[in-house]
Amino acid sequence: MMIKKMLLIVLLLISFVNFSQTYTTYKPERDKIHDLVHTKLKVNFNFAKKQLNGEAWVTAKPHFYATNKFTLDAKAMIIHQVSLNNEKLDYNYDDFKIIIDLPKKYKKDEEFMVYIKYTARPEKVRQKGSVAITDAKGLYFINADGFDKNKPTQIWTQGETEASSCWFPTIDSPNQKTTQEIYMTVPDRFVTLSNGKLVSQTKNGTNRTDYWKMDQKHAPYLFFMGVGEYEIIKDFYKNIPVNYYVEKEYAPYAKAIFGLTPEMMGFFSERLGVEYPWNKYHQIVGRDYVSGAMENTTAVIHGEQAYQTPGQLIDENVQENTIAHELFHHWFGDLVTSESWSNLTLNESFANYSEYLWREHKYGKLDADMHLFENNEAYKNGQSSDKHLVRFNYDDKEDMFDLVSYNKGGAILHMLRNYLGDEAFFLGLKTYLTENKYKAAEVHQLRLIFERITGKDLNWFFNQWYYNAGHPKIDVSYDYNTIQKKVTVNLLQLNVTEFKFPLAIDIYEDGKRNRHNVFVDGNDASFTFPYTKQPTLIQVNADGVLLCEISENKVLSDYIFQLKNAENFAHRREALLEVAKKQEEKNAFNAIANAMSDPSYKIRILALQKIDLINKFSKKYAIQKIMQIANTDEKTLVQATAIETLGKLTDPELTTIFAKGLESKSYSVIGKALVAMYYVDKQLAITKSRELPDAIRKILATPLTRIYIEEKDEKELPFIAKSVLSGMFLTGDDATKAIYQKAFKQISESNNAEAIQNLVDDMVVKGNQYKSFNFDKVVINLMRRMVQDQKTKNTPNKVRNTAIIKEAMAKLL
Ligand SMILES: [Zn+2]
User: Distance, CA 787 to ligand 1 centroid (Å)?
Assistant: First the structure.
């Protein structure tokens, strides 16, 4: 599963979640009393009641011990009948589990099939959601009554972690695997998606029954159903169908969004030495989806953030990493499954690391390293340093879906790959997949395979990284012996537990780089290297592989050299931030100006954001360079930043550059150009903004809001109102938050009833959607402030406006 990263971080901050790990009881792998063999379902949907009418034929056998009881998970269902060979069976049902009395004691490997007729009532499910999944009712009806004219009617399911048993009776545990058949009856205007192959479609009046069949075993949490009015865009990997289910509006862009999938399937198959193991690979986009995306076997669902238009895709396909992530789960997670949620990292660390592997293959090592840097920073900022990667004492299984299981897990695989070498690492993955296919596994199985292949003991590595917490925090110092021409690098670990690790140290003499690979064992380690000339720079963790925090004493000249020469993106970035603080010095200013041509587009963007053009040094050259970047940089995101930087000069002579930006295909360039233009030619910027089609205005809401707020443009408040809440709470960027806080104030104090209506409508939707994070309370407080503002400002519409706000508030209380 891909968690919604931004949402996760922001919601955690406002939801008063207790970060500290509560060491509750040991959470083992679930006992296997029975093994599932096959699951056959026949379902249809009651849209009015948001219920599913189902029949299930569950085939199972005792795992080892003979027994005459059979227990299935079934949440909030009405059970109409349980039988075996047409004989009704006695059972006990407590709203969570059915305990069935079998007619006799079945022995190991003796199969039986029970039939259950039931009604699933997802709205009645009592189990709390989590940060990764905003609730857990398994089966979701979207706009079931069709009342919302802005939203299509859809159905989708979300099984992970244990919510499939909200819509069919099963042993809802990741250490179970079953083959599957589903007959889904739906109104004929809908298409359906489920796991495996679409075998047949049978029309029956205004309804149609689609029969989906999956011959390979997979875990119950990977079962999926999707229903809706979709266009199906067909693609292929070899002879395997790869379809994209999108709403009509996005059909022309489906291939631009998802079209790299077949290439990814080929790359991953080859890299792993294990061909894509399933018979199809379809992806669907679900409205109001509760997470980022989910790897349901051969039927992946994505959230609405996947929907992008060419003007956005030219900047960046924000879904590309997620597409790789869910696909890679089809080996790690779907083919071999972590036996328990404690071992979740066996699924998520690999899916996370696939993003690195894909970027390294497709866009090169620099691009992949930029991704790894952001991945590691998110983990380090996530206040998770006390959590083990494999955790048996978690509070709630949903807590496992965090920056440790994902980001830290991925970083650890990168370190393991570096330590073992590519050949051993990928052979280990191939062996793990081959030996455990269609089975569940725990982390020790991975260790044993790597030990067998390499002949190395790896207990220390796994104990340190998988069964312990934290990462090294290293204080670095140097001693120069100018007589013996030797430099000693001292590494002092400040962490309580001591880490062992391989480490790359670069020593630069006369601008020439020498790489030294050492192994650090002990919390106070020293390494001595000869040199001929006094080193210009020493770079510890030079390849950026080690997940760590380093403190060292460097001066401006070191950072200027580092910005220009460091091999790893993270070190150039670190240097840039330091050099930018000293731009009153000419060589620092020049170093920032030079960094605007760095091979990394993220360094170029940062240099453009940080360069101080109000500075006393000759800035003419720098400005000319920025103008050129605005026109010609290969990345539109860099062009956009260049325009933003030029915009700060409010120089009418730059109007032609901004005018050219307004003609760009890139929405980020258009957005920045509009704002820049506003400060040199207000009328033109506003006219241009009004000429934009509605769809583009929606995407450019932030820059437009900035202009309209400045302009105090009452007419545009209803438009702005629709983005205020997302802008204030669901973005990580402080500048954007500040714009929307201003916007909120203007609307709150305004006389514009339409704007107030739009704002509170959005508040009701999001307040309810994120209730489990107490977001409803946040929103109610804002509404109270609005009522107060109306009173204080004594607006002409005050009575009506206050009524609108209070009516909305009532929907949340
Ligand atoms: Zn995942």
Answer: 43
